[in-house]
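Recap from last week: sequence in, structure out.
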Amino acid sequence: MDGNTLDFTAIRGVQAGSAYYVIMVPLKVVPRLFKFDDEAMPAELRAQRVLNKARVPAIANYITGNASEYILSSLCASIDGEIEFEPAAADGPLRKVGQLRIDMGATILINDGQHRRAAIEEAICERPTLGDETISVVVFVDKGLHRSQQMFADLNIHAVRPTKSIKILYNHRDALSVLSRDVVKEIPLLRDFTCYDGTSISNRSIKFFTLSSFHQAIGELVGKSSSGTIDASDKVLAIAFWNAVIEQMPDWQRVGTREVSSFELRRDYIHAHGVAVLAIAKAGAQLIRAYPKDWANRLAKLRTIDWARANRALWDNRALVAGKVNKSKNNVTLVTNVIVRALGLPLDEEGKRVEDLYAPGENVPLKAVG
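Predicted structure tokens:
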């Protein structure tokens, strides 16, 4: 950097016939170097979305809490001002590497990454030693507001968020995700018939469960969230519980022996859906609290529940909404109430509240006859 320009080592590339550059910027420079549009401006005059300040602390905490292994993807910015690229060589591979000089009077606006920029600023305040580390920035020459807005749309319109199951599968930092993977791996039926990369299962798939459903259910069972502390007893309990549940679910066992397809069970039974898996875990947690030494034997009463979707008197507006299985919070509670009653337990306060407000009808038998 001299008095008139900002100098960066850069790699030059070409997209759509126009040059762009990749530079490395020290984190301590990022807040000063890159600007974002005033959030008070109308949306049609901005080149990006309004900063969601609620997202910033989580990203900042991720950086500072994982200072030895955090990863930040590149920022994307546009330069409105004079720039000059001086290649390291006139020809050969080094002609694409050189010095990018940016006029000090130029405006550099972030097209993508404003939340990362704000989080970097917050993280450096907490841990100044991070300031000398770098982030890559992809720099384009500004061609006006219309082009900047189109760049934002193009960068985000095709972005696909990873599924919940994939995030759980790949997250080695979150203790509850680790517990969920370990439990599924230890139980043969779950290991062989759990879908690890989706939150829904196609009719052609042999998979019966999703990792995201069991992750949520295990959290309910052990009473822990992603920010909670998991210990060895949680794993022992979760494995014991789901093994005991499987013993009382003959249809699940038939999937494991390939006597019936998972598609057939999803088509015909409520227990083959995530709403039931979560409800079983919630009811199970209540059962374990009530009978800490005898809960496994009492799970035998799961066999008395009529899980058939054809039992519309029981499941309509409880697990089924307009004929389709629904996993809303209230529906999970209503299904949990069926299981809690079958297990001979009283409804808790929330269960009573939801039952009074949303239960489909009175005097509906919650158990199969015979």
